[in-house]
Amino acid sequence: MVEGAKGYRLDEIVAKLGGELRGDGARRVMQVATLSNAQPEQIAFLSNSKYQKQLQDTRAGAVVLAADAADAFSGPRIVTRNPYLYFARVSQLLNPLEAAPAGAHPSAVVESRLPASASVGANACIGPGCTVGEGARIASGCIIGRDVKIGAGARLHANVTVYDGCVIGERAILHSGAVIGSDGFGFAREDEGRWSKIPQIGRVIIGDDVEIGANTSIDRGAIDDTVIEDGVKLDNQIQIAHNCRIGAHTAIAGCVGIAGSTRIGRRCMIGGAAMIIGHLDICDDVVISAATFVTKSIATPGEYAGIPFEPRREWLKTAARLRQLDSMAAKIHDLEARLAGLEKKHDGHS
Amino acid sequence: MVEGAKGYRLDEIVAKLGGELRGDGARRVMQVATLSNAQPEQIAFLSNSKYQKQLQDTRAGAVVLAADAADAFSGPRIVTRNPYLYFARVSQLLNPLEAAPAGAHPSAVVESRLPASASVGANACIGPGCTVGEGARIASGCIIGRDVKIGAGARLHANVTVYDGCVIGERAILHSGAVIGSDGFGFAREDEGRWSKIPQIGRVIIGDDVEIGANTSIDRGAIDDTVIEDGVKLDNQIQIAHNCRIGAHTAIAGCVGIAGSTRIGRRCMIGGAAMIIGHLDICDDVVISAATFVTKSIATPGEYAGIPFEPRREWLKTAARLRQLDSMAAKIHDLEARLAGLEKKHDGHS
Amino acid sequence: MVEGAKGYRLDEIVAKLGGELRGDGARRVMQVATLSNAQPEQIAFLSNSKYQKQLQDTRAGAVVLAADAADAFSGPRIVTRNPYLYFARVSQLLNPLEAAPAGAHPSAVVESRLPASASVGANACIGPGCTVGEGARIASGCIIGRDVKIGAGARLHANVTVYDGCVIGERAILHSGAVIGSDGFGFAREDEGRWSKIPQIGRVIIGDDVEIGANTSIDRGAIDDTVIEDGVKLDNQIQIAHNCRIGAHTAIAGCVGIAGSTRIGRRCMIGGAAMIIGHLDICDDVVISAATFVTKSIATPGEYAGIPFEPRREWLKTAARLRQLDSMAAKIHDLEARLAGLEKKHDGHS
């Protein structure tokens, strides 16, 4: 855990973040914790009633919870409508980003002008023609091509690669091993089966407040651009192919693959290891379960799941039946035998 | 988009690439574009008759198309048998690789002799005993081990890693985050369940004209080599395990995993997120659909799909039936009740 | 292959590793090989009786095999209960790790004190506050954050990234592109659908003798730590989400994804491309087949497979039935028609 934070009094927290304080407002908390592991100088939260009985035994110095659980804890507490969101904000308060030294490390190779507030780590490289915003942080080992724009307050962790011409929005966070702007997978087939490369001349445009996970790759567009809109959150090991557009505030969990030219709407949530084929349109507010294989466009908001995919409540039935498939086959076999017997008898009667 | 190209006249293009010119050969085009977004100084293409009506409204200065669509556009045009392939070549002409400065950046650590025409980027490392071909480009942050061979004209984008002893063919393109020659996953199990590492002493041999996507990994062989033959195209986030052999001109889309010692034939096409288990033989000219799970060798060219996989046209039926599985179960239940009723009546009649 | 090894006599090998020597103990072997490719100065092994007839034609100078096959080869041989494990140890003997130069390359940026026996490659970075064990090897291009602990004898291949505060055990091996300690995917949703980041303040703790493959990512814990216990082996392209715990000596093949807070027991084996959702408990000694989608906790050791998963022997039946699904549907249709006919006749009889 990050050491050395001075912490906050509960009344200071409520003054900054709202919520209703009950109990001793002078209680100081230094860090967030889970109910089960919290120490007296830590603040925990309850967002799922399943864990409500942990309130009895927790050593937490304070708890964030909803009104309906507020009487189940007698210590200092903050009552709020959305304890999980409130907890996120308390944690942001208690865990501010450590300062990075402004300026470029002497070992960095920087061929563009930087604002004085930007930070560039050891052995990082920034090509010519780049624009870097105020307070941007480019960690050690990052390689930024030429003519790249990096927004104010963006944070690139170590060993991120950004190809020529791409755009990274303000306050975007890119984790190590992320690759932005590699060539899309575009080839024309020759008669004998050889592949002729189609130059990938589009860019990747990443909006503000986007987060991109470790070892995730986003290909540049073939002709037009690949676009990740504001507020999108991408987990690790994701592949976004050329010319995709991911709508604002969509969240995509790890190991997802999205093939070329597919458009995902806004506020979608896509579960881990889902695979979405190319040239589809997924509308806003779609929820796709983990490991779903999406093969058709989706025009109706809702939850989808399965292989092949279908509305999630249908897939739950299909999945249950799948485990009965062998007994269904046995029943059909039995029905056939009995029916044949009956048909024979019947012929005898006729 | 890449700026500053001088462009080509249509008659210059046809002189270089063939095809039949109709209309004004002096028309100069600067860049390729899609029919829907093209500007007058750009050249577009029509390879799918579905988009033929876009010819009416396109602002493109010229279009590449097939003979059967040639009369649907009245502006300058190039008629050819395979417009998509022709378009790839026009785009290669209009988007030549930017020149890279010959020689090694002062911050690079190079322990092998380089030809004067090779380019090594900032903070790249090349170990001892390497052979680097004429015109090879090794971008910033690449780490090349010892005794590696890199063919003439090969291009390694930023932050590629090549382990000791591997071979990269001529004109190969490796994208950022690619890892070539990491140890295969080889362990012998001890009685108590611990694993004893089997040294991975093979190499990775990559042929000429191979392209390898971002964050793709190819393990070195356990004893013999892992081999990627000429002209293979690998997309991003692919895993090729030790001792695989991928046949010439096979194309593999993103997120595919191929387990150890599997051999894939020539000119195969493998869809995204397909998974192929180890020790299989897939013959030449096999097409595997996205998200297929291949568990047996394939000896007959053709299309395969599904989980578990089967010939694609069979899987399409299976997939349709999967969505009916719950209603099939209900029908069996109904049949059982009706048949039991009939059997009872029949016993009554006897 | 690694050149220059002096090799060992068979009697030297048996003196070190045990086993029963038959034939000429003075035979010297330089390298391991497969039966089919072995040369006279190489030693091969037979661990699968399927390949026993290769013993007749092999050119191997010596063979490691079990007692029941010992008479099928007349040359020098070593008889042992577990030939595969013995072979692993012979290969370790013949392929010792090459020496790395002790000390830090002048281009490395090292802000912590190193033991004299540690090796740090070109352009690597080690932040302040780190503890590095004796004989640890940190290859070129690795970026190690602040306050990281790296155990004695650990080996980080080129371009590995370790975030602040993480712990790497003794003799651990991390392959290129591995990312340890990136932020977990944790966000609280605001009313309008925006995501508020939950600071990820846990660490990643990696035990002794762990191996981690190329481009694998392991996220730091949200509050508590993500833990990889001793002896775990992870292949390439794996995603381990925040707060997972992987039990000792568990082996996980490539392309697997494990969602947050899932706990995997000890000595499990998880096949390639399996996906395991979050908040599950998998007990010790579970074997999960490749491409399985695990959606519930597992409390009984054994083999599991399928989508959705079930005990492996059940899934094998389900998978076989899946390919019959279309004919099952046709049979139901036929049964319905025949039964309706019989019911009609029956009504006529009544």
Question: Average pLDDT value of chain A?
Answer: 95
| CATH architectural arrangement of the largest domain in chain A | 3 Solenoid
Helix/strand-derived category of chain A reads: alpha/beta
Shape, principal axes of CA atoms of chain A: flat
Number of H- or I-type helical stretches of chain A: 5
Total strand segments of chain A: 39
Oligomer: homotrimer
Question: Can you tell me the CATH superfamily of the largest domain in chain A?
Answer: Hexapeptide repeat proteins
Tell me about this structure.
- 3 copies of one chain form a homotrimer.
- With 350 residues, the first copy, chain A, is an alpha/beta fold.
- Chain A is flat, with a radius of gyration of 27 Å.
- The model of chain A has no long low-confidence stretch (mean pLDDT 95).
- A 12-stranded mixed β-sheet of chain A has the order 8-10-13-16-19-24-27-30-33-36-38-39, covered by helices on one side. The first copy, chain A, has a 10-stranded parallel β-sheet with strand order 9-11-14-17-20-25-28-31-34-37, with no helix packed on it. An 8-stranded parallel β-sheet of chain A has the order 12-15-18-23-26-29-32-35, with no helix packed on it.
- Chain A has 2 domains: 8-94, 3-Layer(aba) Sandwich (Udp-n-acetylmuramoylalanyl-d-glutamate--2,6- Diaminopimelate Ligase, Chain: A, domain 1); 103-313, Hexapeptide repeat proteins (UDP N-Acetylglucosamine Acyltransferase, domain 1, 3 Solenoid), CATH 2.160.10.
- Chain A is built from 5 helices and 39 strands.
- At the B-C interface, strand 21, strand 22, helix 4 and helix 5 of B face strand 4, helix 3 and helix 5 of C.
